[in-house]
Amino acid sequence: MKLILRTKNLVKHFDGVCAIDNLSINIERGTVTSIVGPNGSGKTTLVNILCGLLRPDRGEIELSDVRFHEFRSEEMITFKVTRTFQEVRLFNQMSVLDNILVVLTERSARQSFFEKHGEFHLERAKKILGKVDLWEKRNELAGSLSYGQRKLLEIGRMLAIDAKLVLLDEPFAGLFPEMVKIIVNIVKDLKAHEVTVILIEHDMSLVRELSDHVIVMDSGKLLAEGKPDEVLKRRDVIEAYLGE
Amino acid sequence: MEYLIHLAILIGIYVILSESLNLVVGYAGLLSVTHAAFYGIGAYATAICMTSLGVNFFLSLLIGIAVSVLVSVLMGFVLSRFRDDYYALASLGFNVIAFSVFLNWNALTGGAFGIPGIERPNFLGVVFSSPLAFLLLVAICVALVHLFSKFIVDSSFGRALKGIREDEEALRVFGYETHFYKLIIFAIGAGLAALAGSLYASYITYIDPTGFTINESIFILVIIILGGLANLKGSIAGAIVLVLLPELLRFIGMPNEIAAQMRQLIYGAMLVLLMLYRPKGFLGEYRI
């Protein structure tokens, strides 16, 4: 079993409330791992820590065999890690195409100064926007898209990174079935290309369909983990979700 | 005719100021209210170099830009700790400090009396003494600033600036060291404002601190909001409208004594109306 990500005794508090409580998890390379749990169980906090947006109070993160206490979000790209957000965070007053190009083009301030996007970037953007069915909308402002299209654009922006690990925070929430299908196919395609996917999701049928491994969190702790069919029928997991 | 050339020169200087501020506010989303400070640093550096050290205008101009860029980099490190409203307040504080230095460092700046006797530019014996010759110089500078600004906004760097404006944290997730971008564009804006200050000092041949107050920073900010944020043509349109407006009031029989106050009143009223009915300004692509 080759791990891409490991956390050890991760702890995070917000104003005295423990959001992540001694959490130790292992994520295997090239798999889809779903993190499930009731609202407030610490799933998004975990993703925010894993992508450098939050600093853990204690604990360790090991990413691609490099051990951290914390890392900066700018460094994610070095480890080929990217994410989507629970609340869609696009560059709203920029065109759909620019939302993709900003991820495809040069990131260094010095080099980006002398770079304009070229045919190569446009071709890649076209391919990506085609995957999420938004090429026709490329000149529209991202903020003018419907909610579902905005979610798809965020997925497209994630695809623009040639990532090894992607963190998807509730990518299916509030989407029409045809849009869900597009993202399901993208997740399957990522897995086929040995990209590791961490998926936060509430829809258990999608979790069953897509996941190799499920991690259940409750009150910031690891409640259960294992194969989806085994974990999701456990009584303590059902109780955590239904509050029985 | 000289009057029209005078207005064209002023418009040119304000186009440089507004395009440079638009890079900072419109494109990068940094609500800077300190542009007049860099305008003043350029003007004073040029005036001091020319009158006290006898340095040629063009070298003085480069020194003015260098001093302004240096100060802006130091200032940028402090400002990078702030965002949004706090950024605006902190930058405003810097304008207050700069004005106090211009006003109180008598030995260097002449204090409230300012610096008189600044010469017109001289390039290899060709003196830009006539208004038309000076207009030519200003036009060349405006063209260069516009081309440079357009080069920036059309580049990947310009796209990243917009990303910072929209969601800096999200952009960082994609590997952008955003603080470098903010520092660079702030320094570029300051350098270009200093260029405008150098031109102004040499054109008017006299400077004093009253030209570089917070009111001036707000006036430049109003130009870019009125013309349109994140649009260089908007900056040109805004500069033309707001420089010409008080002059036009002269022709409707309004006494000179109240024309200046009317300018304040009218552009205040225009801003309110604009924000109500056209929040993106004349040509704006971005709404604060």
Write a short abstract of this structure.
The complex is a heterodimer of chains A (244) and B (288). Chain A is an alpha/beta fold.
Report on the structure:
The complex is a heterodimer of chains A (244) and B (288). Chain A is built from nine helices and ten strands. With 244 residues, chain A is of the alpha/beta class. In chain A, a hairpin with a 2-residue loop joins strand 9 (213-218) and strand 10. In chain A, helix 2 (96-104) packs across helix 4 (119-131) and helix 2 (96-104) packs parallel to helix 5. The mean pLDDT of chain A is 92. With 288 residues, chain B is mainly α. Chain B has one domain (2-213). In chain B, 75% of the residues lie in helices and 1% in strands. Chain B has eleven helices and two strands. In chain B, strand 1 and strand 2 (126-127) form a beta hairpin. At the A-B interface, helix 2 and helix 3 of A face helix 7 and helix 8 of B.
